Amino acid sequence: MEILNGKWKMSIIACLCYKPMRYSELLKEVKGISGKMLSRELKDLEINELINRHVLNTAPVAVEYQITDYGKSLKQLTNTIADWGFIHRQRIISRMKLKT
């Protein structure tokens, strides 16, 4: 659990499960994360072999992040958590409507 600890790692992994993304794309996609925090989380995920950092041969130089095969093993977990979150939100909304 320590590897996935924190507010942002699961969101980053979920984004990268669908397609490789550049740093700026991730910064836009993961709502509320700061650039400094995104950099820190990406480094940690790379150290734990969940994502790869690939420097593109472009001018200017760009970096793309992608999920590793090992990291893809988390896709089912992220989907399950997302499904639970949707059901939970609907439950809370329904209860709030009953109270009003």
UniProtKB/TrEMBL annotation:
Domain HTH hxlR-type positions: 1-93
InterPro entries: HTH_HxlR (IPR002577), WH-like_DNA-bd_sf (IPR036388), WH_DNA-bd_sf (IPR036390)
UniProt keyword Cell membrane, yes or no: no
Pfam families linked to this entry: HxlR
Keywords from the named record: DNA-binding, Transcription, Transcription regulation
Domain of life: Bacteria
Entry keyword annotation includes Transcription regulation: yes
Name of protein: Helix-turn-helix transcriptional regulator
Organism phylogeny: Bacteria, Pseudomonadati, Bacteroidota, Flavobacteriia, Flavobacteriales
